[in-house]
Amino acid sequence: MEVLSIKNLHKRFGKKLQYAVHNASLTVNKGELLALVGESGSGKTTLLRLVAGFEEADQGQISINGDKVVDDNFSMKPEKRKIGMVFQDYALFPHLTVAENIKFGLSKSQFPNLNDRVREITDMVGLSSYENRYPHHLSGGQQQRVALARALAPNPGLILLDEPFSNLDAVLKDQVREEVRSIIKKAGATALFVTHDMRDALSSADRIAILKDGKIQQVGTPRELYETPKNLYVASFFGKINAMNATAENGTYKLKAGEIKGAKTDKTGQILIAIRPENIEILTEPKENTFPAKVELAQYFGDHQQVHADIGSETHVVIHAHEKILFDKGDNIYLRFNPNKIHVLDTCWYPGLVS
Amino acid sequence: MSILKSLSKIKKYANGWSFALIALVLIIGLPIYTLFFKLFDKTTESVWSHLVDTVLTDYIINSLGLVIIVSILTLLMGISSAWIVSTCRIPFRRQFEWMLILPLAIPTYIAAYTYAGIFDYTGPIQVFLRDIGFSDLVYIDIMNFWGVAVVMALVLFPYVYVVARSTFMSQSATLLEASRILGSSSWKTFFKIALPISRPAIIGGLSLVMMEVLNDYGAVKYFGVSTFTTGIFRAWFSFGDPNSAINLSGILMAFIFIMIMVERVQRGKTKFDEGARIGRQLKRYQLKGWKKFLAWTVCFIPLFLGFIAPVFQLILWSIQTIKKIIDFEFLILMANSFGLALLAAALCVAFSIIILFAVKVNKSHFFNLLAKFAALGYSIPGAVIAIGIMIPLLGLDKFIINTWEQSFNLKIGLIFSGTIFALTFAYVVRFLTVSLNPIEAAFKKTGDSIDEASYSLGAGSFKTLLKVNLPLIKSALISGGILVFVDILKELPLTLILRPFNFHTLATKAYELASDEMIAESATPSLIIIVIGTIPIIILNRLMKTSKSDGSIIN
Question: Which segments of the protein form a coiled coil according to its record (chain B) (predicted)?
Fold first, then answer.
């Protein structure tokens, strides 16, 4: 069942030409954690604030649990939307204790005994012995759990998290990501969260939506995004990738420097292909279907070597080699591209990025 | 579609807060509209042309002259003492640091008649001169332009001192040390580095001095110097020509407008003071010998003449006359003053909350401008506000009285004008700025995400204000209220014009006694005003200290 449904949402600030959110459509299913990932300025936070009701859309619809909250010339007030939200700076009320913060959003009609509900929630987030503390007496991680508890307490249909991990230091981050995910799952809540850090998304989210320039580039599970990226932008979000112009013909990619045979593809004509550094094999002897190359730079990283190689015709590639042999600048090597690991990308979206 | 769009945009802003904001701003702007519309009205030709022919040049020369001379004097006293207190080690430096603000507690009119009394024929200075053998030959006459300029500067220089000190203190030591390592003397460092960096802030403080000079009525009137404010009083009370008073107000406002513009431009040009904030504090210079004595004197003289001497004299007079002064009537006087100040201060705080929260709820440039407009009052001299409120209220009263007489054949008195209502109204118009500023700063500090958190938890705007915002800005509400309270207690020109018949406050009573050659008798109410005036100074000083200790900068 869809908890959140966004259709063709547009938002522009002031008289700017550029859209902050451009024709965004997205659904989040019950019990799902969806991460909105993008660089700063990609529109991810705006999209979240549109869902929360702190910004007003220019066009498009949003429904939460089947109720229209945004439509043409209609926008439900944030306090009516029954959404929980965890803010980047947590926004805990500094003059209220942990229990009072959690109680703030609870109503007697929903929970006849408010104190029981507060106890239940603090137990769930593991803060039951901190109920009477004030926020400034808590550590960053604890404050965040209070913020989460406060958002979850009224049993909202949807909870939104704005950069939930950005205020934590690296050591704490790993632990908190796990905690937040398990608390949300335990509460049976549906969540949408915004992050600029792909690792946040990979470790906590069920599905990921990648935004760039206000547009949603691709939505999918981490594996789908990694294995079948739609364009170079999505592909590059997971680390290094080699992109090259090619011509496809009968399962063969023709590059300027040579040919890669044996691909299972029905594409023909001018295309953009991409292959990850670990999917290129380095050989010391020429074999069938290999490219002769020259090492330009080799960096040793312990578990792998990063090798920059020139395959001629002004084409350069990066390889992650796990072989025991150490390469050095000027070495002659032979590269084999795994034809099944080559992605065909959408060329029309980011031609500027093609190297 | 586009009409629908703009309609829905307007609908977005259609809430109780925006209506309240618009209503408040409309009402608070009343004196400004009066000025604007009445400025082009016909004056009683003979009065206005008479004023133009005889005294208008005097008004312009005296007002502008006072602004210039007082500015120069306050700059000299304020900057020099601030520099010494922040960069040199002198005996009692810590005490000087806060005591140099104390002169601000003495209103200009009290300083004026106290000094007049001190230099009077029977005053301590003349008596002393006669005792040591100078006969009546030496008579120091301070009852003129130069006298009033010096007296005003003596109690107004802390406006410059406070801002200069805080910028000198927050300037990074490395900056000043860099200048010295490059071979500049400490004088060159002061003139080439410290002063230029502090200029925008100091000009801000100076503009407050100028406002006070143009607002003053009591001091110039007492010293017999005719300025725009005394002119407005004369046109209104002696010639009975409100339109001439309006014209004078119009010219005065034009001056003030130019002043504000100059200040804005000055500030806009210089953005560098922010960046220079980080870094250690300067190690203070250790002065020796006559330099140390000179530095100490530069700090002591303004403090002595601006606070210690007049307060000491007032205490002496008060001891002489307190038996005669304290009676039942005096208690009523106190109750009037305190009650009125409390009422107006409470209203100012309440209106500030409504205006600022309305801006917070309806984020829009337009509402922001409206709030700025509501804060204009402090730059308008009290006499001008009084005239601007008196004229429309009198008209309204006349209209009501006439209609009642015609329709019910009943005679009724004045309802709005010449009542506490008019006075309270005028106080709110003039002093709203004073409470708006600290409350706005506090609202800014709490930030928006706390509000959004409250909304996301299902609270409406009213609950958000009551349960989240107000508890968090409590101390700003209190200090804003105290600042307004004290300002109202000191206020003279506006109260003189608008007070109901036979109604007195501490300020008007003190001024009336002094004007009736009973300076010694005026000492007790004056002292009460001064003592209460020191409260905000102590609060401010404590605020600065605490902010220093936790390392944050509160401006």
Answer: none
- Judging contacts by C-beta atoms under 8 Å, the chain A residues touching residue B450 are 91, 93
Instruction: Give per-residue pLDDT as tens, A195-208.
Output: 998 888 888 899 99
- Measured between CA atoms, the residue of chain A closest to residue B447 is A91
Give the count of Cβ contacts less than 8 A between chain A and B.
66
**Partners of A86 in the beta sheet?**
A161
Mean pLDDT score, B341-348: 94
* A85 and chain B in contact, CB less than 8 A: yes
Measured between beta carbons, the chain A residues lying within 8 angstroms of B475 are none
For residue A350, tell me if it sits in a domain.
no
Q: Please identify, among A184, A199, A232, the residue that sits at the C-terminal boundary of a domain.
A: A232
Given a contact cutoff of 8 angstroms between Cβ atoms, the answer to whether B246 and B270 are in contact is: no
d(CA B65, CA B220): 12
The number of angstroms, rounded, from the C-alpha of A336 to the middle of its chain's C-alpha atoms is 31
Other Cβ atoms less than 10 A from the Cβ of B495: the count is 24
B-chain CB neighbours of A15 within 8 Å are: none
**Token pair for residue B388?**
């601007």
When pLDDT is cut at 50, 70 and 90, the band that residue A265 belongs to is confident
pLDDT digits (tens, 9 = 90+) for B191-235: 877 888 788 888 888 988 998 999 999 899 999 899 999 988 888
Residue at which a domain ends, from A232, A266, A286: A232
CB hemisphere CA count around B223 (13 angstroms): 30
**Which H/E stretch holds residue A108?**
none
Q: What's the pTM value of the predicted model, to 2 decimals? A: 0.81
Residues in chain B: 555
How many CA atoms are closer than 13 Å to the CA of A344, on its beta-carbon side? 17
Give me the residues paired with residue A218 across strands. A210
Q: In this complex, do B459 and A104 lie within 8 Å of one another by their Cβ atoms?
A: yes
Query: How does pLDDT run across B161-188, given as a tens digit for each residue?
Result: 988 888 887 776 667 777 766 767 777 7
Asked whether residue A224 falls in the same domain as residue A312, the answer is: no
b/e map of B48-76 (b: 16 or more CB within 10 Å)? beebeeebbeebbebbeebbebbbebbbe
At the second CATH level, the architecture of B14-39+51-271+292-547 is Orthogonal Bundle (1.10)
Q: Cite the DSSP H helix spans in B375-473.
A: 382-408, 420-446, 449-456, 461-463, 470-472
Q: Which long-range contacts (CB under 8 A, 24 or more apart) does B61-64 make?
A: B62/B145, B62/B220, B62/B225, B62/B226, B62/B227, B63/B213, B63/B214, B63/B227, B63/B228, B63/B252, B63/B255, B64/B255
Angstrom distance (rounded) from CA A98 to CA A125: 12
Q: Which helix (H) or strand (E) holds A298?
A: strand A291-300
Say if residues B333 and B524 touch (Cβ distance below 8 Å): no
* Half-sphere exposure of residue B224: CA atoms within 13 angstroms, side-chain side: 5
**CB of A62 closer than 8 Å to CB of A4:** yes
Number of residues written out for chain A: 355
Does residue A351 belong to any structural domain of this protein? no
Domain chopping of chain B, boundaries: 14-39+51-271+292-547
User: In whole numbers, what is the pLDDT of chain B averaged over residues?
Assistant: 84
Angle between helices A170-187 and A114-124 (to 10 degrees): 130
Tokens 């250790």 -> residue:
B286
Q: What angle do CA A92, B548, B208 make, to 5 degrees?
A: 100
The whole-angstrom separation of Cα B233 and Cα B496 is 10
As a whole number of angstroms, the distance between CA B484 and CA B470 comes to 19
Which among B4, B453, B472 has CB closest to A85?
A: B453
pLDDT in tens, B453-501: 999 998 989 999 999 999 999 888 988 898 899 889 999 999 988 888 8
